[in-house]
Write a structure and sequence with these properties.
- The chain is α/β, with parallel strands linked by helices.
- It has 2 domains: 164 residues, Aspartate Aminotransferase, domain 1 (Alpha-Beta Complex); 273 residues, 3-Layer(aba) Sandwich (Aspartate Aminotransferase, domain 2), CATH 3.40.640.
- The protein contains 16 helices and 16 strands.
- The strands form 4 sheets. A 7-stranded mixed sheet has the order 4-12-11-10-7-5-6, sandwiched between helices.
- A hairpin with a 2-residue loop joins strand 13 and strand 14.
- Helix 4 packs antiparallel against helix 12, helix 5 crosses helix 12 and helix 13 crosses helix 16.
- The two termini are 19 Å apart.
- 44% of the residues are buried.
- The structure holds pyridoxal-5'-phosphate.
- The site of pyridoxal-5'-phosphate has 15 residues, from helix 6.
Length: 448
């Protein structure tokens, strides 16, 4: 066995949880049999960037628990907001009813988002936000006398969620093999991922070359196309593939020119992750649909939102029910989740988080030099509060080994293939960044 979790096995509570979890819980994104060699890790509590096991071993949550946590675990301000709301109204259906938290959140998001996205439609998870944006786009065209516009395009290696509609615009070979027969797979266009640039070609030039391929596709198929969906600036699940903002500018122009919607899936990159509150700001564009989830509640509660423009909203505004948007989730606009999101926005404003993150990112870039210069580290990259690199390692099961060895070094890292990335909570301190870098260096050194 690779993984020395003897401490955990010595703890009766922890051992008991492991066995029961393995028997009764089907865990996501996992081959359950692998847990015979890589045991599940029971977590008892969290505080700041740290997660604690029952044995009091601690783990620095360098991936923000799948990219959702912004201001640390058990953040007192978010806890207080949820507790306050809990005493007033835990939930009411949003069809036919409304409440203060959902109205306030919609107004504040409307003020913060790129100009013109004044209408908010809510759901509970990222994949549902993708579904909503796709349906809204095609339904808009239908309501506008263009019922033939029902197809979509996404980038190569795109990821927009794993429900069947979202999978149709997700380009992951493993999923396509397993579920391809169930979906209507949509076309992809070349990704402006700068690692694919030719020798001597700048990331901007490469982005423009990819935009030319997008233009060709739009030219040929625009009559059938409803929308182009993109993860702006960073394709997360592809392994933190980063591209130049000029691609988004060009995509916006081309979508306007060919009458195709632009959907910005900012589920992972929104809420300050790329250095601006929304990634689209760095290209100075307004998408037709903006999808948010993951960090929107600070990592507390499931919530997602699709924001759109007035012209699109107006195309649904009519006497007939069938012209209205047909989509509903039981927990749409849940008040507790909305309060967590409002508390998250308060922290952004009160702590001047975007400016503080710029300083933290600069510090991280400075102290990470020894890691960046390690012989087994390639394609070091950074956008805002995301860092990633490719690790050179002879191990085919590098991701699992790295995960296990990192835990022994008090780090929660979860590589995507041989891509190691940091996406820490914004509350990470300088000392914690130092620990993250030095321990990662040890892990990479041992596995290379
Ligand atoms: C995580 C993610 C999704 C899916 O969100 P879920 O809440 O996991 O359904 C969609 N798009 C992007 C870019 C994501 O990172």
């Amino acid at each position: 066995m690779l993984f020395h979790m003897s401490d955990i096995y010595r703890q009766p509570d922890s051992k008991n949880l492991l066995v029961r979890s393995h028997a009764a819980v089907w865990h996501p994104c996992s081959q359950m049999k692998h847990h015979e060699n890589f045991p599940l890790l029971p977590i008892a509590r969290g505080s700041g960037v740290w997660l604690y096991g029952y044995d009091d071993n601690r783990y620095l949550d360098a991936v923000s628990s799948w990219w959702v946590n912004l201001f640390g675990h058990c953040n007192p301000r978010i806890n207080a907001a949820i507790t306050d709301q809990l005493g007033k109204l835990e939930h009411v259906m949003l069809a036919g009813f409304t409440h203060e938290p959902v109205v306030q959140l919609s107004e504040r998001l409307g003020e913060l988002a790129p100009e013109g996205l004044g209408h908010c439609f809510y759901a509970s998870d990222g994949a549902s936000a993708t579904e909503i944006a796709l349906k809204m786009s095609a339904h808009y065209w239908r309501n506008s006398g263009k019922p033939g516009k029902t197809q979509f395009i996404s980038l190569e290696n795109s990821y927009h969620g794993e429900t069947l509609g979202a999978l149709s615009v997700t380009d992951v070979a493993l999923f396509r093999d397993a579920y391809g027969a169930l979906i209507r797979q949509q076309a992809t266009v070349p990704s402006p991922d700068w690692r694919k640039a030719a020798a001597g070609e700048s990331s901007e030039d490469y982005a423009l070359r990819c935009a030319a391929a997008l233009e060709q596709h739009l030219q040929q198929y625009h009559q059938q196309l409803a929308a182009f969906i993109i993860e702006p600036l960073v394709q997360g699940a592809a392994g933190m593939a980063m591209h130049a903002p000029v691609y988004l500018q060009r995509a916006r122009q081309l979508c306007d020119e060919y009458g195709v919607h632009l959907i910005a899936d900012e589920i992972a990159v929104g809420m300050g992750r790329t250095g601006t509150l929304f990634a689209c700001e760095q290209a100075n564009i307004t998408p037709d649909f903006l999808c948010l989830s993951k960090g929107i509640t600070g990592g507390y509660l499931p919530l997602s939102v699709v924001m759109t423009r007035d012209e699109i909203y107006q195309a649904f505004y009519a006497d007939e029910t069938a012209r209205g948007f047909l989509h509903s989730h039981s927990y749409t606009g849940n008040p507790l989740a909305c309060r967590a999101a409002l508390a998250t926005l308060d922290i952004f404003a009160q702590d001047n988080v975007l400016a503080a993150n710029r300083d933290k990112a600069a510090y991280m870039n400075e102290i990470s030099r020894p890691l960046r210069e390690h012989r087994a580290v390639h394609d070091w990259r950074n956008t805002g509060m995301i860092w990633a690199f490719e690790a050179e390692s002879p191990h085919r099961d590098f991701a699992q080994r790295c995960f296990a060895l990192a835990l022994e070094n008090e780090l929660l890292l979860r590589p995507i293939g041989k891509t190691v990335y940091f996406m820490p909570p914004y509350t990470i301190s300088k000392e914690e960044m130092g620990l993250l870098v030095s321990r990662t260096l040890q892990v990479i050194d041992q596995l290379s």
